[in-house]
Description:
By secondary structure, the protein is an all-alpha fold.
Amino acid sequence: MNSKGKFIKNSAIYTIGDLLPRLISVFMISIYTNVNYLSADQKGIVDSIMPITSIFSTLYLLGLNGALNRFYYSDKDEEKRKVLISTLWIFLFAYTLILSVGLILFGRGLSNLIFKDIPYNPFFKLMIVNCFFSTFTIMPLTLFRMKEQAIRFGVFNILMTLLNVGFCIYFIVFLKQGAAGNLNGYIWCNFVFALVYLVVTFKDLSFKFSLPILKESLKYGIPLIPHAIGGWIINASDRWFLQQYKGLSEVAIYSLAYQIGSILDFLVGAINKAYVPFFFKTIADDKNNARTIFEDILKYYSVLILSLGLGLAIFAKEAILIFAHSNIYIVAYKIVPLIAVVSIVHGYYYMSVNSIFYTKKTNFLATVTAISAIINVVLNLILVPKYGMYAAAFTTLIAYLFSSIATYIVAQKCYYIKWHWETIIMNMAVCLGAYVISTIDFGNIFINITYKIVIYLVYISILFMFKILSFNKLLYYKNKILKK
Length: 484
């Protein structure tokens, strides 16, 4: 199979591997929104801690997962690759162990600063333990991606989700541990899989440590930390501001909307998992034709994310009516379309940013992300106290728009790839029209669903009518995916 066919097939596998866990986790909505297991405030605790966990994970990883992405294909010598992986693994174990012990022993003041209504004991301590074990599940998954082991990645991702759901149900439903039960579920899942991954990746380790490799990796990875922190501010600080100004219940409602709307973000993230190694490998192996290959992929990638974003926006209300167990959460459907647009914009960012990574201009990313983060924080401070979760979604969108546009402009200067903007804008206009028409409410969920299905099918037909999609191209991609 050629590299393009392998990318398409790996994208499909990563999508299934990421989307199935996401759909499995939707089952947990019925538990998280059931007041017999978690009150709205307890769900708010869970939803406030998870974004903070992600920023701590960034500080734990030090951008070394990004360094593994960048340097894995820099040398074709398998033994040198093993030294790279071993060096990162040994350093991360020592560093994260010391960091975790320090935060558990001396982190009360930091906890009080971050969380307004969430106790240090047990929640902050549990969060730190979770961060420690999760570090050793992230790096192996990064390795699977770089080795283009999409099936292995997908299978382990699904198994992790199933185990996590099982542990969470056990601690929340049977042991009645509430919000702490959710964190315990994550800890035990990450602990088990950290051991599993150690066994699975054992052959990729040489247990040799190279200080020059570590220095080069940190030199590449550390500049990514401000970029990642800025990305966190843009993507997740909205829940922190809601916690501070509107309380845990509104965090819970907003997070439900985010959980549904960001399904698309998981999809674009899954495609990016295949695209990153494909991008670097294609430039290395077929530099003369690389731009043409990327151009074709970007055209159909755009159609995919816009059509799926429209589907999420249209059917959000019905999904929440079906899965949520409390009427307090129904209003979340109004936020989902904005979150879907955020995911679409984020998807375009993914397709641009690899050109910057290729040219090693990572310092620029830190600058752009910092400016985007400042925009996000300022708008949140001004708007969230008055407009709550609606403002939180809006400010996230504005920040992502700035980041994506700036990244696109610089990426085109670093490594030019043609984007078919006329087709993209036409598709956006059709999506907007379809969404506006879909907001008509007939007062009956079954009639509403039928009506929206018809609208969505008409939208797909319009894509073919205006040749934004073609049957021949779909058959081509189908054959690429199924080809052995």
